[in-house]
Amino acid sequence: MEALVASAVGVMTAAGIFLILRRRTFPVILGLSLLTYAVNVFLFATGRLALDAPAVLNKYKDVPYTDPLPQALVLTAIVISFGMTAVIVMIALSAYLSSKDDHIDMSAHDSVDAPGEDA
Amino acid sequence: MSLFLIAALPFLGAVFPALLIRAGRNAAASAAGLTTFLALMGLLIHIPSVMRGDVVTAQFEWIPALGLNANFMLDGLGFLFALLILGIGLLIILYARFYLSREDPMGQFYTYLLLFQGAMVGIVLSDNILLLLIFWELTSLSSFLLIGYWKHLPDGRQGARMALAVTGSGGLAMIAGMLILGNIVGSYDLSVILQNKELIQSSPYYLPALILILLGCFTKSAQFPFHFWLPHAMAAPTPVSAYLHSATMVKAGLFLMARMWPVLAGTDAWFYIVATTGLITMLIGAVIALFKDDLKALLAFSTVSHLGLVTMLLGFGTKIAAVAAIFHIINHATFKAALFMTAGIVDHETGTRDIKRLGGLRHLMPITFTIGTIAALSMAGIPPLNGFLSKEMMLEETVHTTWLHSHYLVPGLALLAALFSAAYSFRFVSHVFLGSERHDYPAHPHDPPVGLWLAPAFLVVLVVLIGLYSKAIVGPLVAVVSSAVIGGEKLPYYSLKLWHGFTPALYMSVVATLGGLFLLSLHKHEEKLWNALPRPEAKAIFDAVIAVLTKISQVVTDTLHNGVLSRYAIIMIAFTVGLGYYAYTSGRIGPETREALPIQIIPLIGWICLVGATLAIMWFHRNRLLSLVLIGVVGLIVSMAFNYLSAPDLALTQISVEVVTMILLLLSLNFLPTDTPWDSSAARRWRDAAISVVAGIGSGALIYALLLRDFAFPTISDFHLANSYKGGGGTNVVNVILVDFRGFDTFGEIIVLGIAALIIFALTEAVLGTNVRSYLLNRKPHWPQSGDSHPLMMVVVTRMMMPIALMVGAYIFFRGHNQPGGGFIAGLVVAIAFLMQYMASGYTWAIERQRFYYHGSIGWGVLIAAATGLGAWFNDRPFLTSDFGYIHWPPLEEFEWATAILFDTGVFLAVLGAVMLALDSLSRFAWQPGMAQEFPMDINPLRDNPPQEEENKEQA
Known about the structure:
The structure holds 2 protein chains of 2 kinds. Chain A is mainly alpha-helical. Chain A has helices at about 1-20, 25-45, 70-100. Chain B is elongated, with a radius of gyration of 38 Å. The chains are: A mainly alpha, B mainly alpha.
């Protein structure tokens, strides 16, 4: 089981990074989403894997529990990453609609803000 | 009054002028004056104990781990400076009220002035050098605001920038020096540092610390070669110049040298650095001042010269020189502030500060003439005024000073400086007030209203009285301050009196005065010579240096930061991978301690789907819609994996976030191109692939290694498991962690989420306000639209599902504390319920039936969460401590209440509001005219059978 989780993390990381290195906004957003999955699973897995041991206390008998702390961290991470994705989607969309160009890189002829002389 | 309050009063008071300016300029000025007056009274209350030689202290441990304590102390030295700052501050506030014109924003002025005043008081009262540094930097910042107060004048802005650059960089050097000093002694408390002279002076770090601290002092006190910023700072309004550059800011450097005198002075390094710098500054300042035509520039350079004088005296390192330095600080503050104010009056009334255009004002402005003349004569060192006394003491000291075996160098140069000093003082009087009356003044000069001349007149009275009755008036003060400066040791013999007999100093004074008159009589010829001489223009050099620095930083920034985001990403990833590799090769890996779980068939199928989908995304990522579908597959399997691996909360969250993310991405794809073109070369793709594969292998291997080993250290999770029910009252440990143990984190997270949603909303507003809107209105969709955009079945089903979905949300919310669920998930589920209506019945239809604003939902969420957290304070518990209990109503089962549910309500509202606001904003991009329909469905039974007929039918 550990091998499956680890290899899945690896594959998702690799695919995520490959897409992040593309030059258009949409693949980069997809790459970030994939990387988010990878990172969330990674963080979750730092609590080690356990089957049938949710961290919900059983009042009546002594049962093993999995590590709840990484779960709590990942839970908020999932929600925050939605917020982050939404913001970059919106930025990408606004940029595309304003300039009709979805490249993420500034090309050489794009104007760099010129140093202004204050006088 | 507590020292805390004295230091805090100006900061607190700074609010009032800004607010009260609406009630008029007098109200603003009175508020500023009253604040200063209160602080001054608070200071004066301490006179008896200070005069006894006691040290008043007030202590508060601020960040003890850093050694940063908000400790204040008031001894003689601090008292003198605080007196100057607050006393002259009060006069300046009065003067500025009449000086500033109607167009100047006066509320702002007084606010800046009080901020500056607070920072200065903080410096002189600090008993902790870290605290002192904070106030030191605050003076740099607030003086920047004051110097650049006339924002419309380029001179003002440039002068302010130069002052900030010079004093700010000196401040940086001083931070380093102070830290070294603190490390030598092992304490940042001044009172401890001042006890450790031997330790400091024998340390190998003494010299670097000394140089760095002196850099801070010299830049602040405009010592050569950093003197150039002071004249440029004269672009400020005159009240600012009079305050900052006579009595306060430039004296901060002197204050610090005096403060550190007991431990830093007395070495050769101190003598040669400080005394020489002071001597050079004194001479250069005096010479330049004689040739300045701008009244304020003349005074600025004379200030530079006098600061040099005090620096030199402190640099001598003898006790008696320190006494003279203190005495001159008092005298200089009185006559120089008066002179600046006089210059301001002349400028105000005649419309010019150019000496070449002035002259003959003595009959036109008799009061100003009297005030200016007395102050100037004091500056020249004419008896019986106070300037004479301290100048005599200074000359006397130079006679006893040997510089590199030369007995004549120091007294000779000091005499020369005194001579020039007398000359420019006489010039101030004769070229402005004496001579024949002219007819070409830019305005009609006359004496100003009493408000303007009262403050300088008061100072001039002091000048005369201190000169005549020095022993009675300032004798005790000088004694107390001097003994504070020399570290509480026995004071040397000195006498503050006009007549000491025929001493070398007297002869030197006579020579200086006569020489000054002679020099002035030849001023025209000297000026020709001066103008013919080549001399470095400090501003040009400064500008050139700044230009070079700007160029360098621009080159560096442009090279590193050229706008190619994918390059940044590659650098960051490669660096991270490199770090990982370094850790792998340099570290050591322990043996495997855990058994791997067996691989079962269903997880294996899931794994195959996930890996297959991920690889397919890489392969087909050019087809954007397809890759979206595939990423949905990945997300679903991840949530199933969470469920399988004992994380039901995560599974619920992941699957609901998955739904909203997909809707979001689909909506955005509606406006973006449907395909990604090929635009990177094959080589680049292979390079990217190589980097990603290495990174993937690295992260996979890392987590694999981690999974097969137990925790290296005891985990804190056991605490959470053990206390979840006992302390938090819930059995779902994950939820209890979120709302209780780590509630502060969650509180932060919902705020972040809310801000993200507001950013999205703001971006939408901004973009839809541009010509993008017209493009969107005329946009043709990528694909032909479906004929039935709101199908009957879907509308009916989603309406039916709405209450059920809401109930599911409520159920998940309420069970959250004890079973998987909670505010986050409930918020997402309810958001999805709303989104279904948007999708099925259309945006316009849904928005018309929406009864609340999503912004409000975010705001209420955060407020409710905060209020729940604050509630703990009323029970003397820390922020966000939760409480719970059990209620038993007889026929029902016992049930639990917990304040955490209120907090979770906040989370719920914030998540709901944020998700809805984000998607709602995105939906607005799609709005086109004609979309609003009366009926939600394209095929609508109501349309074919209008309501009236229906009624008829019913009647029938």
